[in-house]
Amino acid sequence: MSEQQLPDRLCTDGDRHLAGGNPTKAAACYSAAFSRDAEAAVRHVQSLGDVGLASIVAVLEGWCAGHTWVPLQVGVEPAGEAPVSAGMAAGFLLLLDPSNLIASVLRVDTLLRSGQHDEAVSRCNALLNAHPKHALGLLLTRALAWVLSDRHSGNGVVDYLQAFAKRREETVAFVTTRQTADLPRIVDAFNHYVSQHQKSARGGL
């Protein structure tokens, strides 16, 4: 079998597993096809119909669970160990479902870690409008993006304070568990923010 024929064969295998009631194996086949020919794999999975597409999306979301703070939908279980990276699963998910929250948050995290803080802020802004039920996590993620950008760290402090004012315990729990590695930068941003406001207050006297 040629390299060009392999994605089609993998998709055919995926169809067989899906028809046999094993969406996890099907998703593994489609993901393998995606790694070789993303456009063809996405087109094929999108042609499965609503039920087939939803089952593959659910498996991909399960593989991404645990790599993000977004909870799985009620009744959806983690899909076990993924045969692909969370980044690849998220990329596949975003092409199948561009507004998917789990995949979008993973993409934002990638942007944060690669230093693309302004793009991360823009993504969070769009997600806040699309997913108001998850506003706290998105607000705190945007806050971190602002803080890591340095130039706009004050905006991040404002976001943190806004979240804290609305849901104190959840905000503290989120920051101390999900943003532990960045706590020194967050504390520095708060110290700088307070210092600047103290200077402004003294200057106004």
Name the descriptors:
205 residues, mainly alpha, 2 domains, 11 helices, 73% helix
Radius of gyration: 21 Å
Helix content: over 70%
**How many DSSP helices?**
11
Shape: elongated
Low-confidence parts lasting 5 or more residues at pLDDT below 50?
none
- Our estimate of the beta-strand percent is under 5%
- The strand count comes to 0
| Structural class designation | mainly alpha
- What about the largest sheet? none
Total count of domains: 2
Q: In whole angstroms, how far apart are the ends?
A: 80 Å
Helix-strand pattern: HHHHHHHHHHH
Q: What do the pLDDT scores average to?
A: 88
Concise structural overview:
With 205 residues, the chain is mostly helical.
Structure description:
The chain has 205 residues and is mostly helical. It has two domains: 6-97, no CATH class; 115-203. Helix content is 73%, strand content 0%. It contains eleven helices and no strands. Helix 5 (86-96) packs across helix 6 (101-113), helix 6 (101-113) packs antiparallel against helix 7 (117-130) and helix 8 packs antiparallel against helix 9 (153-166). The longest helix is centred in the C-terminal third of the chain and has 21 residues, at 183-203.
